[in-house]
Design goal:
There is one protein chain. This protein is α+β, with helices and mostly antiparallel strands. Helices cover 18% and strands 16% of the residues. The radius of gyration is 14 Å and the shape is globular. The termini are far apart. The relative contact order is 0.18.
Length: 153
């Protein structure tokens, strides 16, 4: 397993997109659902890393322990549902990821479609919701317990 936590500037880079690959994406080759020998990708999230972030309260971007407030970076649709796929992160990590990913092409961070608009929200706590057996969307989500701030990306 790769070294965590890592400062944002030291995150590995997706060779296709030239974007930093966050901790929740599985930042070491051969970890999670990615076969050994495959390349890092900013397009997907690693389900095991997502769960690790939720249960250990670690930042989905850098892998370090979280305090408060917590930040969630996602799409307007995720905010409307109050169900984010990228784990909670430090506010500074979410802001840095937003700056790096804004305008990037294609689906990113486990999203089905390219985001038309990013949003960054802060909260004090969240619920981790694992998918039920019959759910069409098998990805776990993070549901903030009330928002402290919301800002468009």
């Amino acid at each position: 397993m790769d070294a965590a936590p890592r400062p944002f500037a030291e995150l590995p880079v997706d060779p296709e997109l030239s974007l930093p690959v966050p901790f929740a994406a599985g930042t070491d080759v051969g970890y999670g659902d990615r076969p050994v020998g495959s390349v890092l990708s900013a397009r997907d999230l690693d389900k095991r890393r997502v769960t690790q972030c939720a249960l250990s309260r670690t930042c989905g971007v850098c892998g370090a322990g979280l305090g408060r407030p917590l930040a969630f970076l996602g799409t307007r649709a995720e905010l409307d549902r109050m169900a984010f796929h990228l784990p909670a992160s430090h506010v500074e990590c979410a802001q840095a990821l937003l700056a790096a990913y804004d305008g990037a092409p294609g689906p990113l961070l486990g999203l089905d479609d390219p985001p038309s608009e990013w949003v960054l929200v802060t909260t004090a706590s969240f619920e981790f919701v694992r998918p039920a057996k019959g759910d069409a969307d098998r990805r776990p989500v993070f549901s903030p317990n009330g928002l402290l701030t919301t800002q468009p990306g």
